[in-house]
Amino acid sequence: RYHFTEEELNAVLYGGLRSSQPTGSLHAISGLRVSPASSGAADSSVPLVDRDSLQLPEGLSVMRVAYGDVSQLGVFCTDPIPKGVRFGPFQGKVVNTSEIKTYDDNSLMWEIFEYGRLSHFIDGKGAAGNWMSLVNCARFPDEQNLTAIQCQGEIFYETCKEIFPKQELLVWYGDCYVQFLGIPISLKSMPEGKKPPQHAE
């Protein structure tokens, strides 16, 4: 039998910990509580970010979000983004599978598959210019507007629908992954002669 606390569950599911004092207004679409990340209302459960080093593309902004008792940063759209726009690659440190420990924080890691098997991870924690590490995971398919795609050993986020101003960017695995209960177990093989989609920012 497994034993874990509600705080540990929140950290795994939402990548954040409880906030004792939520601030800001509720986001109309998702029900998330939203306030600008630069508001100065520091929340010790959310890491401070150096906005200058994020290299955030134009049309996006970083804001603080809270869902229930969980508070963290998120990336929001300020200008419409059409379907099919690709961001990336996801920046980070290569971590071998042998380096992963059971209780390591893997909330900012993406799996990289080679020859149908898990090869290594890309850990976005602390990577300069990695605004993509602030994009939260979608909790259910209807709110997902980005898909994570592996292309030539790197991770990209691609819009799977048009994203409108004030909407949060929310990512989950794309169709290129074989999944079991929503978790990727391998990368689908690409048919011979078919080239991977071209990178466009």
UniProtKB/TrEMBL annotation:
Recorded superkingdom: Eukaryota
One MF term in the entry's GO annotations: RNA polymerase II transcription regulatory region sequence-specific DNA binding
GO cellular component, one term: nucleus
Single GO BP term: regulation of transcription by RNA polymerase II
Pfam families, sorted: PRDM2_PR
Cross-referenced InterPro entries: PRDM14_PR-SET, SET_dom, SET_dom_sf, Zinc_finger
SET domain span: 58-174
Keyword Hydrolase: no
Alphabetically ordered keywords of this record: Transcription, Transcription regulation
Gene3D superfamilies with a match to the protein in the record: SET domain
UniProt xrefs under PROSITE patterns: SET
Protein name: PRD14 protein
Native organism: Calyptomena viridis
